[in-house]
Every structure is written in structure tokens, then in C-alpha cells.
TrEMBL record, chains A, B:
The keyword Lyase applies. The lineage of its organism: Bacteria, Pseudomonadati, Pseudomonadota, Gammaproteobacteria, Oceanospirillales. PANTHER family: D-GLUTAMATE CYCLASE, MITOCHONDRIAL (PTHR32022). Keywords: Lyase. Belongs to the D-glutamate cyclase family. Its EC number is 4.2.1.-. SUPFAM superfamilies: PSTPO5379-like (SSF160920). One of its GO terms (molecular function) is lyase activity. This is Putative hydro-lyase Mar181_0224.
Amino acid sequence: MTQLATPLLQQTYELRQAIRSRAHTGPTSGLATGAMQGNIVILPAEWANEFLLYCQKNPIACPLIGVSEVGDFHLPDLGKDIDMRHDLPEYYVYRDGVKVESRADIADLWRDDLVVFVLGCSFSFENALSQAGLTPRNISEDVNVSMYESNIATVPAGRFFGNTVVTMRPYTPKEAIRAIQITTRFPKAHGAPLHFGTPQDIGIHDLDKPDFGDAVSVKDGEVPIFWACGVTPQVAVRNAKPPFCITHAPGKMLVTDMLDMDLAVL
Amino acid sequence: MTQLATPLLQQTYELRQAIRSRAHTGPTSGLATGAMQGNIVILPAEWANEFLLYCQKNPIACPLIGVSEVGDFHLPDLGKDIDMRHDLPEYYVYRDGVKVESRADIADLWRDDLVVFVLGCSFSFENALSQAGLTPRNISEDVNVSMYESNIATVPAGRFFGNTVVTMRPYTPKEAIRAIQITTRFPKAHGAPLHFGTPQDIGIHDLDKPDFGDAVSVKDGEVPIFWACGVTPQVAVRNAKPPFCITHAPGKMLVTDMLDMDLAVL
């Protein structure tokens, strides 16, 4: 993967510093434009292989872009100074599959058997959408992207199973066709949408009540478009019930020093 | 462009012979799979430059893939033995923009000032759709594709102007996303759809009453998907009112000896 050029590297560095110092605690969508962001799942090593297999079987929802060494909270392949104990705006802590805590730092929870998984994030194609004049509504309304637990089952692996979490961005049909083309270029950032139109068809009953993130307005003539989301593993963690797991809070991602465009195949 | 391999060349030759002898008079969709088909517009030379410009300004609806020499009814670049006086299952004859006749042969109407324009046709991507398990409904129901005059204006050029004619193929949203990806690969065969969903949004009020071709069934959970169509120039001819013009009858195309896949960019 390609490291950012200096001015953007400065931005990602400063953003991570702001997150580390808790000066920034909100969503990361639309920030450090051009830099790749990642979903995070941290599991004990004895659960790692099973989760790896789950990602392999569900490459659209869970596109792996990085895995740490056991016990290492650095991710040198994704950014030189990344410290996974501090560098997310918000962490979720799961015990036995139950979310027990949300916190700004996990330094005192770190263990030397933990493995960090980094999954591609749809924020990586939001920049490409914006450049095409298709700025996602969550960015123009300055809120967290809308996320919903759909009824689209993932492929189980070991103890991991569950439905796919999806993000939603509204577009007119003409815009949606262009958005499908653009996001198709980013298979490692969830790629093309899974569904458009009637939310009920994929088990979503109220767009105004996302399961994660914020609702956005859907205007007349617009259709909701649904992409797979890297929060999907959190549903699988709820089901697999590993004794210990840490994830990012939805929409509050790891900001890397790598180029968004590295996830584009064309 | 690439010429077909011998077995398929044999098929296109035989199909054109069957058309020439009037043994085949129907639509050409789904026939000689793998061979490129074309929309036809034949105009007097003095109207040719204006029409050329119209095609240039409307590359999605009017993707030019061949132009004859003035007065030449052969198209050596598209097939060695093509004779435009006989090789369409059905011709429309327009005088002063009015369709005055439909006929199986135009030998006795041929003039040495005529220019033949060949435009890419959505049938070229139907094979790719079928191979992806997305057989178009017009093929599975063995009817002519459904065509509608939309309210999507083309860009005028000289005296040529008018709305875009679109073909419609129904798919579920999931299938439609795949179909958008596949047809995006064929920019010279109308490429990605222009619209999906509510037909009224593009001025179509009754899917059961296509302006050209046949209606197809739209099943529960399916959405109509609309692609630009090479019948669009016939609307422009109606408006421009050239004293003389010959076109193919919608759905009854020129079968060439060239490869469909030559229109694919990826």
C-alpha cells in the first residue's frame, strides 16, 4: 500500500493526536480526506484464526486490510505511529458477547495475547463519491453515517455468525447508478451496494431509527442505497460470545497513513 | 474490432442469409450469441454530417460503431458479405420525418447518395448478462425487448433533437446492481442504465404499453431498469424531418461478424 504524501500525512498525524488527546471524540467520516480509514476488531489470539476465517468467508462485509502481531498494539503497515490503545475516538468493550462499556482509551485493558484486525471502511469511497459530485448525505449533514442491522445473513465460520450491518446513503436513481459504478472500484472498502430501494426487503423497518449512527434525510425522488458495513463483525461477536473483545464505536474509525485509492482496483 | 471465430461466423452468415431470404423476419435478440448487433440509420449524404454530430453529442444513446462510404450498401468493417439493402429483418422508411412504410427489403429504394450509420445495441450486453445468470426477461419470454420514449432530452445537433428511447429489463435490486456493473463495461452498447425504479420519473406512464417492442412481465420484488436505446435516432428523425430516411425496425437489428466483447472496455 502507498503511504500518503507529506501534507496529508501531517493531517492524519494531527488527527490521531487530537483523538489521542481526546480533543476529537466524534465520527471520522469526511476527515483527513484521501486517507484510508479502518474498522477495528481486537480479539484474544485463541479466537483469531476463527475470526480470520469469518473475514475470508465474508470479504464484502469484512475486507481485511491489516492484522497485527499477537500482543502488538502497533500497526506499522498502516501507519508508523499508530497505537491501537489510544487512537480511536471511541472503543466498545464486549465481554462474553455483551457490550459492557464504551471508552475513549483501552491502555489499561491491553493484553499481550490480543490481535488487532483492521477492515476496510466505506468512508474510503466517500471521497471518490464526493469528487463525482455525489457527496454522501452523512457528510453534507455532518452526522455519523446511518447503519442498520439487515436480515442478510453472513457465512458462518466457527462460532462467528450473524446478519450483515449496512450503511445507507440516499441518492436519486441516476446518482445511484453512478455511485454503484464508483463504489464497485473499491472491493476492499465494501465495494458495490448490496441493495437499494425498499428497506423492508432486507429487514429494515424504519430508516429514521438506525441501529448505529444517525438518521439522515431522504429527499423526494431519492432511493436509499445500502452498502455492507464493517460493523458486521460486532453482530458476529455478539453471537460468538468471545470472553473478551474490543471494537471501534461505529463511525469512529482508525485513521491510517495509507491512501484511500489503494483500495481502488480501477 | 475482432472478427468472429469460424463456427460463430457460420452462424452470423446463416442468420443473415435467413433474413435475406425472409426465412427469419423477427427480432434478433438472443440470436448468434456473441456476435455484435447494430442499430441502423440510413440518410442522404447532405444530412450525414448533422447526424454524425448528433451521435457525437449523444454517445450513450447513439454510440457510432460504423459508417458506410457514400452510396455503399456494404459495411466491410463489420462483416464481409453485409448488404444493407437486404440484411435487416424489417426496415422502416421515413419521408419528411413521417414513417410511411415498413418493408423487408430496400433494394429498390437504394440511392447512391445514402450513408449507413451503425450504432451499438444493448443486445451486445445481453449475452454478458445471461452469462452472469441475469438472462433478460425479453430473452426468457422470447419476445422483442420493451422500448419506451422517455422524457430524457438528448442534446440537439442541427435539426436533430428529441427524447431518449429506452429499453427496459426488470431485475431485483441485487441483480440490478450486478447488471449495472456488467453493462458499465459496454459503453459502446449504451453502457450503464439511465434510470431504475419509478417509470413516471422519466415520463413513462404504462410499462404494459411499450412504444416499440413487446411488454414483458415484471415480477414481485423486481424493479424496472432502463437503458438508452438505439431507436433514439428515430425520434430525432421524426423531428428533423429529412426528406428521406431508412432505419431498422426496433429490435430487428443488423447482425455483424464482429465480437460483442469488442464493445467491452474491461
